[in-house]
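Re-running UPF0597 protein TSYNT_6127 to confirm reproducibility after the cluster update. Everything else is unchanged from the original entry.
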Amino acid sequence: MSNELYQKAIEQVKEEMVPALGVTEPAAIALSTAKAYEVVGGEVKKVAVLMDEGVFKNGFSCAIPGTSEKGNEMAAALGVIAGKPNLGLRVLEDVTEDDVSKAKEMIKEGKIEINVKRGASDIFIDAIVETDKGTGRAVIKDKHTNIVLIEKDGKEIFKKDAESETSKDKAFDISKLVLKDLIDIAEHTPYEDINFILEAVRVNDELAKEGKQGQGMKVGRGISDLIEEGWLKEDILTYAMAYTGYAVDARMGGVSKPAMSICGSGDHGLVATLPLIAIADKKEIPEEKLVRSILLSYLVTMYIKTFAGRLSAFCGCAIAAGTGSSAGICCLLGGNNEQIGFTINNMAADITGIICDGGNFGCSMKAVTAASTAILSALLALKNIHIPKDSGIVGNTVEETMQNIGKIASPGMIKTNDVILDIMINRCD
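Result of re-run:
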């Protein structure tokens, strides 16, 4: 592989690795309304937000950071009232209790309208804010922070060139690579070019430490208590499960600390890193080896997400990031290229069926499952225990397996996604 390809791959990882305060979908909703309001100001009359199915689903039940509130309406209202669009996915980091009271009043007065764009598979948010001074509009597409259109009173004041974005996105196409390429990037890129990943280690570790106090569903705290009570044994598996659970508990519980996201998801970022950090801690593995293994975890996650889509009917944090994590763990523990392929096949055969029912406390359970399965799959692969080729969705090559994982989500689970969405929408009626 050329040095140019190495650099393009690392640039893509840098773009994907973004700090996110709270679940990325409510943050993106708040970003859209904050930006729409910013162009007009004044007293709000109405806020209307049209969003794709995945954004609606993931924001439906999750906590808003720094508050005890949940949901898409609250995210939209707070974006207008207190959002700082220049902060990207940290748009709501300065929300106060007074802001929450104002948002509740705005919702009570019927000023917030949330609609779902059915059939949309890519990220899409269209926010229109009407005030006594005019009407502002902001549209986000494809990525949670990718604002492609801003209007004031129906007149375009900013529009992103779709053609240049498309050519930029195609500059590095990870789907054209094979697993060996991903491993080569992780193993051979100069360390000074990838040690920025240490920031993900720091950020996600801080969130885990916060969650250890017991927020959200308290899955991590519960596992720790079960160890102390003798129901579980403290080992690498349970340590990584609790550590991962702490962070997702904190994030889904509304703790005002960011997660380092990957592929537009904080939970993806946590699952792709924390099991590896836990193992490196217990086994005293050198920092550089950890960083290179996390990079491989990211790359495998990105590869699968290319085929699955940003938001899907299956749980991407468990399946895509969990598979990435397992590949990284195998690398971290000295696995060779063939064994890293084995662990991906093991994950595909084991964990692919987990559904996504939006961002909520249940994400902690899914993340803990992903952590434990990732470690077990990697340890078995290191013993050359693996699912044979052409078994179920396991392909003839590991690349085919990863592509098949993605296809299970899209187009495979479109009907499943419709049913999940219907259940959630009917709850609003």
